[in-house]
Amino acid sequence: MFDLAISGKNICTPEGMREGVVLVKDGIIADILPSLPGEVSKTAIDIGKRVLMPGIIDPHVHINEPGRTDWEGFATATRSAAAGGITTLVDMPLNSSPVTTTGDAFDQKLAAAKEQLQVNCGFWGGVVPGNLTEIEKLIDKGVLGFKTFLTHSGIDEFPNSTEPYLHQVMPIIARYGLPLLVHCELTTNVQPPPVSNERSYQNYLSSRPRKWEDDAIALMIRLCEQYQCRVHIVHLSSANSIEQIKQARQKGLPITVETAQHYLYFNAEEIPDAQTPYKCAPPIREKENNEQLWQALQEGVIDFVATDHSPAPPAMKEINSGNLMKAWGGIASLQLALPVLWTAARKRNLQVSHIAQWLCEKPAVLPGLQKRKGKISKGFDADLVVWDPDSSFRVTAEALHHKHKITPYINLELYGVVEQTWLAGQLIFEQGNFPVLNKGKIITS
């Protein structure tokens, strides 16, 4: 007797969309059959024409606990994730206090997460100058890889790496086959013009030029080749770097790339002045640039899409002043990852199967989860989302489970309504409610 049978006409499998029934036993997908062979499960549901897709994986999220739980915490972040069809998160090592750059800090992170997780959560360790002796300690404790910045991170406790330091760190990370995730902006290579109007979006955009990204990515490609260390470019926003990434791939270098929903949904030309919810780094660029990002995503040059959910309290976002230069750079969007991407994709006549590639299958590879997560396939974890691609909804602050409801998506009409989220075959979200709480697990390498 199976524990669960989900029947539907639109099951998103690696082979394509198909009609059938997914059978679940002990939290694992036991089989996928054309039809239900009698009474074989304790629970059977029929989702009709709604889509059954693998649970979404977001490997770029700032949860900020411990230490800055007033920005976001495990309880609010993971419930937001569940409400958005996300079943696995990987938490970034900065914005919490202490930052996750030592073995002791990682222990504190795990203790804070315990019994608060609505979905599964893994962790990246941090690479900062001076923590060379902590790298292997963090690996032994189970981090899934490492994150570093090439410019100021916004958090003084998490200073940026320099090229000489990366020469020391990358051979160690390469030896263990783990990825190094890099915020690619080299802010010393070119000085932007002085900003006269700090409320002007165009002035903010000019203050972080594409060349910062392009030079940083060139550096990481060179170091990737030298050490054969897996390098992952986070939140690519400069389309100028697409060609050099293509060439690196053609050489067989172990380099992967993500972009974020906001670079694919918004365009700089449409962003009003003084609207700090749009501020992120690198910035949202022009329509022509962002269309090239879409093309690179469809061609596979960009591997997947992740939110870079990075919330902050209203005062830090300078909501009242509208000062884009002072405001915290980060966009809150965790709960909206699926509908934002789907709304933009359907305008381009793209398919649900593309969404499954970019939000489920490809993101599973970066943290090494591709053998058990990201696909509706026999033997994989029964992490699943049921959603309606043809229904739309208006984003309201009241419906968001993020700690702070500040997001540029408020009042937008989005397609793709998440109706159910299943974690290891257990229903953890349904129609705005959480039937069970804190069933998520900590994922370690």
Description:
This protein has a domain at 55-365: Metal-dependent hydrolases (TIM Barrel), CATH 3.20.20. The protein is 27% helix and 23% strand. The protein has 11 helices and 17 strands. It has helices at 74-83, 103-113, 135-141, 163-176, 201-207, 210-227, 242-250, 261-265, 287-299, 337-346, 352-365, and strands at residues 2-13, 16-25, 28-33, 41-46, 51-54, 56-61, 86-91, 120-123, 125-126, 146-149, 180-183, 231-233, 255-259, 304-305, 384-394, 413-423, 426-430. Strands 1, 2, 3, 4, 5, 15, 16 and 17 form an 8-stranded mixed sheet that branches. It has a 6-stranded parallel sheet with strand order 9-10-11-12-13-14. It has a 3-stranded parallel sheet with strand order 6-7-8. The mean pLDDT is 97. Pathway: Nitrogen metabolism; (S)-allantoin degradation; allantoate from (S)-allantoin: step 1/1. Belongs to the metallo-dependent hydrolases superfamily. Allantoinase family.
